[in-house]
Design brief:
Blueprint lengths: L1 E3 H4 L11 H9 L4 E6 L9 E13 L5 E8 L19 E6 L9 E5 L4 E2 L3 E2 L3 E3 L2 E3 L2 E2 L2 H4 L24 H4 L6 E5 L10 H12 L17 E2 L3 E4 L10 E10 L9 H9 L7 H13 L4 E4 L7 E5 L5 E3 L5 E3 L5 E5 L2 E5 L3 E2 L12 E8 L1 H11 L4 H8 L6 H16 L2 E2 L2 E6 L6 E5 L2 H6 L5 H10 L3 E4 L3 E5 L10 H12 L19 H15 L3 E2 L5 E2 L1 H7 L23 E2 L4 H13 L5 E8 L21 H9 L6 E8 L16 H15 L4 E4 L5 E11 L2 E9 L1 H6 L7 E6 H7 L15 E10 L4 H12 L3 E10 L8 E10 L8 H19 L2 E2 L1
Parallel strand pairs: 13-25, 14-17, 29-32
Antiparallel strand pairs: 1-12, 2-12, 3-4, 3-6, 4-5, 6-11, 7-8, 9-10, 15-23, 15-24, 15-25, 16-23, 17-20, 18-19, 20-21, 21-22, 26-28, 27-28, 30-31, 32-33, 33-37, 34-35, 35-36, 36-37, 38-40, 38-41, 39-40
Length: about 850
């Protein structure tokens, strides 16, 4: 909202020397946000005066264009030219070349003399053109930056002006005024008016406020006005779409009369374009009082007016000349011919006021904010009126605003007030809120006195009565946001001053820090980053097909999913049951942009619905739900475990001179899972598994205490082809929450032994079907406590190995805690390990 300071001064005591910055600094004290400062004088300066065309000679130039060689007087005849400078004639008569043709000798015009600067840093100086030295310029409204008209110069008589020659145009047009622009939050719609901002300025500065509504005397009715019917048969949320509708009539207006310069200047400084006198008056009253108005050409109306909801199939051509198909939720203004406007949003073209209009019907109504907001969004029709109705308009100022518009039409357009008045209303009584004794002090922590509370609430326009329980506050009609006692306390804190609230830093309770779960999550994410992977964050929205593919190991199984009520895309209308779909999409997008070597990971929630989805029992407002209601609500919330997943494509490093990097493979995916388990100190078992999204034979099942919690390996070739991902892309995902639950409370690091290490290798021949991990477990068990570590380092089939067999080579590390092992002790432990493997799997040494 832009606030011209000259306008604000009419209703608030703004010092004459106050700048827009000063005004915004005061308004910030009461919670309004500063946005910008607007000063026409910042782009417009120098000698710009009223001149009169003494002579005009038309000359045809060599380019075929006809120009006017003009002699223009810029000081009264006989008066001395006080302006000096290069190109300014002491006689007060300037020679000027002008290409416009909408003026004649004797017209008074705006003259920019040498030394003036126009918007866009356009400097005026004498220059030779079309065979003359033109010492100045006769200006149009666009060149001055005060209008859009560029078809001709400004002829002051057409604006109803006859100023003295030499008059400073900056003063004449109010161009020395300035505006403070503030940001109005949705709960303070009353500040979309000079009336509201003037009240706030008075509160901020402790000065007197004059309500512009109090300066309007509403006339009594002498005859019934137009027949008005409020017939909202389908109110939204049970609230009538319209609870007040005021109409006034003015006859004999001259719609072509010029808008006074003071009004046009104020409108422009307020950010509203001057269009025509009736439209400008409507906008002026709206900005002043906050009540949107609509003017109808009364001669184009058919019968009375009915306010109702649209019926299916109805259409309306709005003022922007577009035909709009109406919704049954749209609130309409209609007459006997049908819809003539979308209430509170935009009027219809059929009853538009035009230059031939002589009889105007003024509408000042109050509409439901929700209904207006929905219509505005539905039709994508933002307007100054809807902006105010959506945030709440004072329902009791409608008659005042209508009278103000009547007075201006009579004064400026030569109209006649008919006193045919209609005021149909069904307004709810003023809201009353009880502010309990001591509540404000307890909530804010400031010892407010009764006088401070009363003065603050009275200042915003409320009526305050002291009672035994506290304060009975009758909320002003322009503040629909004040509904509960906390709202009143906020007003007290705001008006008395936020700077009065002491700043007290809370003391952190001793012995607190990260929870076990938080600490574990941080360790997991940091460990993967330290291992060289890059963390990404993906949207949790997926398709049904993606959930069915990654959410279960078995193909053809439909996975229960949580559907989104308002998805950003119909394709991705469900919450994820796995992290991999969007992680793979991130890899695909990066791959398509040339980033081929990727190691990505993400930690996040997945959503696994239970038998109950949601709850049919909703708790009431303003009261704590019972334990049964809360239990029912929580039963309907899907299980949301924290998963960790990673994806590997390309190579582990970039290629270089004499260096060929290793390609990522299934082992890297498994290593990522082991990294997570190691940092948690949790037991993770890795065994061959199967999953529909992974390559058969190149996938490992990840288990904790016999329960599968994830998979790692190479993704299925067909899936990679369909997803446009590189072949041999690998991935891992596990339920990190289950892994964290299995981890010990404290991970104790093992001390480093100073005893020497004894290493021995063994190669065992087993059947092809035997899992290498099972053989490794048998060797570990058989070797006993002297075995420190064991690892598989080779799998071989071929020459020397019987058909249907394979050779598994393991490296064994032995160490004693208290002595140096002998070769015999190490060999004995190795032999025990081989013996157990032979017993369980028929393994023979190679």
């Amino acid at each position: 909202m832009r606030i011209p300071l000259s306008w604000l001064r009419e209703y608030a005591q703004v010092p004459a020397d106050a700048t827009a910055e000063d005004v915004m600094a005061d308004l910030v004290k009461v919670g309004l946000e500063e946005e910008d400062v607007h000063r026409p004088s910042d782009e417009l300066s120098g000698p710009i005066v009223v001149g009169q065309v003494l002579s005009l000679v038309k000359e045809e130039a060599s380019n075929g264009k006809t120009i006017n060689w003009c002699q223009v007087r810029v000081v009264p005849e006989g008066a001395e030219q006080t302006l000096t400078g290069k190109g300014i004639d002491p006689s007060g008569v300037q020679g000027i070349v002008c290409g416009a043709h909408n003026f004649v000798e004797g017209d008074k015009v705006v003259v920019t003399l040498p030394g003036a600067v126009l918007p866009g840093n356009f400097k005026i100086s004498p220059r030779k053109t079309y065979g003359h030295v033109s010492a100045g310029m006769i200006a149009s409204s666009r060149e001055l930056g005060i209008g859009e008209d560029h078809d001709g110069i400004m002829v002051l008589s057409t604006l109803g002006l006859d100023p003295e020659l030499g008059t400073d145009v900056m003063e004449l047009f109010g161009l020395n005024d300035q505006a403070a622009e503030i940001n109005v939050t949705p709960d303070r719609g009353y500040c979309f008016s000079i009336r509201g901002v003037a009240r706030e300025y008075a509160l901020a500065t402790g000065t007197e406020f004059v309500d512009p509504a109090s300066k309007v005397t509403v006339a009594g009715a002498q005859a019934p006005g137009l027949d008005i019917t409020l017939a909202d048969e389908a109110p939204i949320y049970g609230v009538p779409g319209c609870d007040r509708f005021v109409t006034r009539e003015v006859t004999g207006i001259d719609a072509t009369a010029p808008t006074p310069r003071w009004m046009a200047s104020r409108l422009q400084l307020a950010g509203v374009r001057s269009i025509s006198l009736p439209v400008d008056i409507s906008n002026y009253v709206m900005l002043e009082l906050g009540q949107p108005l609509h003017f109808y050409d009364a001669d184009k109306l058919s019968g009375g007016i009915t306010v109702r909801r649209a019926t299916a199939g109805e259409k309306l051509v709005t003022l922007d000349a577009k035909e709009r198909e109406l919704s049954v939720e749209d609130l309409l203004i209609t007459d006997a011919s049908g819809p003539i406007g979308i209430a509170g949003v935009m009027g219809g073209a059929s009853t538009e006021v035009s230059d031939t209009t002589t009889r105007v019907l003024i509408e000042a109504a109050h509409f439901d904010a929700v209904s207006i907001a929905r219509s505005r969004r539905r039709h994508k029709l933002p307007s100054e009126a809807s902006k105010r109705f959506e945030r709440g308009v004072d329902p009791r100022v409608a008659a005042v605003a209508a009278q103000r518009a009547v007075d201006l039409l009579v004064e400026l357009a030569g109209g006649t007030e008919t006193r045919n008045i209609t005021d149909v209303q069904d307004l709810a009584p003023a809201a009353q809120v009880l502010l309990p004794e001591g509540f404000a002090q307890r909530l804010i922590g400031v010892d407010y006195s009764d006088a401070q509370i009363t003065e603050a609430l009275t200042g915003i326009g409320a009526s305050v009565t002291r009672t035994a329980e506290g304060f009975a506050v009758q909320v002003p009609s322009w503040r629909p946001d004040l509904a509960i006692k906390e709202d009143l306390v906020e007003e007290v804190a705001r008006i008395v001053g936020y700077d009065q609230i002491p700043a007290t830093l809370p003391v952190a309770p001793p012995g607190r820090g990260l929870t076990r779960s938080q600490s574990q999550r941080r360790r997991v994410l940091q460990a993967l980053a330290d291992a060289g992977l890059t963390e990404v964050l993906c949207y949790p929205f997926v398709s049904t097909a993606q959930n069915n593919t990654f959410g279960t190991a078995n193909a053809g199984t439909e996975v229960p999913s949580v559907a989104l009520a308002n998805p950003i895309s119909k394709e991705f209308g469900f919450l994820r049951t796995s992290l991999l779909p969007q992680l793979l999409e991130t890899a695909r997008r990066n791959n398509g942009r040339g980033f081929r070597d990727l190691a990505l990971y993400e930690g996040g929630l997945v959503f696994l619905p239970k038998e109950q989805m949601g709850s049919s029992v909703l708790p009431p407002l303003g009261a704590k739900p019972s334990d049964d209601v809360l239990a029912n609500l929580f039963d309907g919330v899907p299980h949301q475990p924290w998963h960790v997943a990673s994806v590997f494509t390309g190579h582990e490093a970039a290629a270089g001179v004499d260096f060929t990097p290793r390609a990522w493979d299934w082992a890297d995916a498994i290593d990522a899972a082991r990294t997570v388990a190691d940092v948690l100190g949790a037991p993770l078992q890795v065994a061959q598994g199967s999953h529909q999204a992974f390559h058969p034979g190149r996938v490992a099942a990840l288990s904790v205490n016999g329960t599968v919690i994830g998979y790692a390996g190479e993704l299925h070739p067909q899936l990679l082809k369909d997803a446009d991902l590189p072949a041999r892309t690998c991935a891992m995902e596990l339920d990190a929450e289950a892994l964290m639950a299995a981890a010990p409370a404290v991970v104790v690091a093992q001390p480093l032994s100073t005893q020497p290490l004894a290493t021995q290798d063994v190669a065992l021949v087993v059947d092809q079907e035997v899992v290498a991990g099972d053989v490794l477990a048998a060797l570990r068990e058989g070797a006993g406590e002297l075995l420190e570590d064991i690892a598989l380092f080779d799998v071989y089939t071929g020459t020397g190995i019987p058909e249907g067999k394979k050779s598994l080579a393991f490296g064994l590390r032995f160490r004693a805690a208290d002595r140096t092992l002998t070769a015999d002790e190490a060999s004995e432990a190795r032999a025990a390990a081989v013996s157990l493997a032979a017993e369980r799997f028929g393994a023979t040494q190679r």
